[in-house]
Amino acid sequence: MIKGITRRWMLNTLSVIIAIIILIVVALIFSVTYVFQTQVEQDLHSASNELSVVFSGFRADNAADFNTSSRDYVENFDKKEQMGVMVLNSSGRVVLTSTGFLPSEDEKNTDFDDAKSSASGYAFWNGVLLSGEHAMSETRVIKDENSSVIGAVRYIVSMDPARSRIFLFSGIIIAVGLGVIALVVISGLSFIRSIVKPIRRLSDAAAQIAQGDFSASEKIEHKYNDEIGDLCDAVSDMAKDLQTTEQMKNDFISRVSHELRTPLTAIKGWAETMQLSERGTLDRRTFDRGMGVIIKESSRLTSIVEELLDFGRIQSGRMVLIKEKIDILAEFDETVYMLKERAVEEGIHLLYDDPDVMYPPIYGDRNRLRQVFLNILDNALKYTPKGGVVAAQVLYTKDDPDVIKIVVTDSGCGIPAEDLPKVKEKFYKANQTVGGSGIGLAVADEIMNLHNGSLDIESGEGVGTTVTLTFPVYKEGEENAQPETVKL
Length: 488
Description:
There is one protein chain. By secondary structure, this protein is an alpha+beta fold. Among the domains are: 78-157, 2-Layer Sandwich (Beta-Lactamase), CATH 3.30.450.20; 240-315, Helix Hairpins; 319-487, 2-Layer Sandwich (Heat Shock Protein 90), CATH 3.30.565. The chain has helices spanning 4-48, 51-54, 63-75, 110-117, 160-210, 227-276, 284-316, 328-345, 366-382, 440-450, 478-481; strands at 84-89, 94-97, 122-128, 134-143, 149-158, 320-322, 324-326, 349-352, 362-364, 389-395, 403-410, 454-460, 464-472, 485-487. It has a five-stranded antiparallel beta sheet with strand order 2-1-5-4-3, sandwiched between helices. Strand 4 (134-143) and strand 5 form a beta hairpin. Helix 6 (227-276) packs antiparallel against helix 7, helix 8 runs parallel beside helix 9 (366-382) and helix 9 (366-382) runs antiparallel to helix 10 (440-450). Mean pLDDT is 80; it is low at 483-488.
């Protein structure tokens, strides 16, 4: 059963094309018939026009004079091979023919009566004789000087030869029409098949991809350099991206599970140690150490959960910003101060000079921006080896007075060139040897976008990484242009 695109094409397009072709064929057949019949009429009319000369001002005292003149005309008629000539008396009865044989009296000569009543004095007839032969005739009446009808001359032609030619040309026209329809059907079905088959394969491949079989994209063939080919490429690329995303998601789940398991294990271990120890036998130093680990790992768990929650809010468009005028120097200085002790413990030189000048404020959410600062500085410390350097600076120049930039540079392992364009994507993690969920940078980038700023990364493998945060400077009345609390 024909269905889908093929059925719609046959109902909507092919039916219209066939209808148009049929109309054209019918019109051509009518035109051919009209042309041949008109040609016969013109031949008859041309022959009858001679009577205006032969019988011009005809005068006759009796019917014998008309019969004599008519006989002379019929005997000298030079188109006897093309048509027959009949002479009719005033009552419409045939009295003379060019063949010498009188027609049956049952033969009706309606064109004689039409000619008598016609102002032009002639009339045509087209029909079937009693013999079954198709014929066409023209009858022209002859009048005397008193305008009285004394007789008529009838010219008659067999239509069988003309009908044969009409049938021949009509058959050719119908054959050509059928040929055109056949070509349209064949070419149309071939074209539809060239669309339907790839789409069916794409549909099957998409169904397999939807079920998780990403290898189905390898079966998609690119045969056409058109929209179908582009669609094949798009589905194939989509499958590869989905496969990559699926792998990244699985790696993300694995990393998050590991990140959660590590602090939970430490918290559980120290809690059990402190619970199972006999009262008073646990020395103060061990107790403080255990509590320190529990507090530290709890904070780490809180940070991971908050990061996951922020990522979920961004994905669902529910991130809430509470914006206000902010001294970006004070916020960044406090963040650097929070991490200085960690840098000392890890043997990393954290360099930052607080500018002595006042910078203009920015308009943003201080907690979310501090989250960005922590993420960038945490990554810099995380990927910088012992003895390395992390340098941070805040830049504001008169050459570019509309923005404030924070630049953080580290001397760490750097990011490979092939990974650099993807590091801000969700779930992506270039270095699997270092802990982390892999979504912190994606969250930080989205927060910067929500502040109409940008997060740019430059890196070289084995050289280090430079992260530049760009913030638009606060403009007077900006808090009136948008609400302080923005839901996205």
